[in-house]
Amino acid sequence: MTDATGLEPTEIRGATLLPARREDIELHTADGLTLVGELALPADRDPVATLVTLHPLPTAGGFMDSHIIRKAAARLPALADLAVLRFNTRGTSSPRGTSEGAFGEGVTEEADVAAAMAFVAERGLPNPWIVGWSFGTELALKYGRDHDIRGMVLLSPPLHRATEDEVRAWRDDPRPVIALIPEHDDFLRPAEAAQRFAVAPNIRLIPVAEGKHLWVGEKQTSRVLSEIVAAVNPSALPLPTVWPAA
């Protein structure tokens, strides 16, 4: 059965790329590096909010195309009216290209986060949220407080590089921070996460049954994207499972 546009709805799956305005962009850091990335905007309207995505560990294969981040950019401009900014941190490569510099163990990447937030401000992108995954959560916890964001969503936080003091610093911050903790995470599972995040009890922990660190499979992908939208633009829920949406 076709919809009003004459198109037959198709199921949204792993490789689905929904309509959006997509632009290759560059970010420029305070220490003189050029980082490569992409901005995806809703195809025919202004975004209601912006996701600034921070990818997993580049030395373990993380980059701007890591699947949850790629699927957020592929789907959420159309499904939830969100702008999605994704980029390679310093020294990281993807089909988009290679960002200048070298991996900085989460230290020099402070300038990468600042460059992304400066781009958001320059473009006038609305209501920015940081969405970090794995290593990206470390950057979010360490440096997110310094920027004009509405909140953060943390996916599979390992708490390897973010110190207890850096987590505690969020304790009195009024901006919402939501952390999705996979039941079968390789690094930080729900019981330990409850202990490690206890220094900032305002951070909302969401244990995800059957979840794993890499969120493999459409079921886990849908859960993660739905939790992001629940935080950032809940009026867009539930996310459609077919396109064009009814």
Task: Explain what the structure shows.
InterPro entries: AB_hydrolase_fold (IPR029058). GO terms for molecular function: hydrolase activity. This is Alpha/beta hydrolase. Keywords: Hydrolase. It comes from Microbacterium sediminis. The protein has 246 residues and is an alpha/beta fold. It has a single domain (24-233), classed as Rossmann fold, CATH 3.40.50.1820. Helix content is 26%, strand content 24%. The chain has six helices and twelve strands. The strands form three sheets. An eight-stranded mixed β-sheet has the order 2-3-5-4-8-9-10-11, with helices on both faces. Helix 3 links the parallel strand 8 (128-133) and strand 9 (151-155). Helix 1 crosses helix 6. It is globular and about 55 Å long. The protein starts with 9 loop residues before the first strand and ends with a strand. The relative contact order is 0.16. The model has no long low-confidence stretch (mean pLDDT 96).
Query: At the fourth CATH level, what is the homologous superfamily?
Result: Alpha/Beta hydrolase fold, catalytic domain
**So how many helices?**
6
What is the CATH class name? Alpha Beta
Q: Which percent range fits the helix content?
A: 25-40%
The count of domains is 1
| Percent of residues in beta strands | 15-25%
Mean pLDDT: 96
Our Rg estimate from Cα atoms comes to: 17 Å
Going by CATH, the architecture would be 3-Layer(aba) Sandwich
Structural category is alpha/beta
Find the count of extended strands (DSSP E, 2+ residues): 12
User: Biggest sheet, open or closed, and with what strands and sense?
Assistant: 8 strands, mixed
- Unreliable spans are none
> Strands of the biggest beta sheet: in what spatial order?
2-3-5-4-8-9-10-11
Distance between the termini: 11 Å
Query: What is the CATH T-level topology?
Result: Rossmann fold
Shape: globular
The SSE string, one letter per element, is EEEEHEEEHEHEHEHEHE
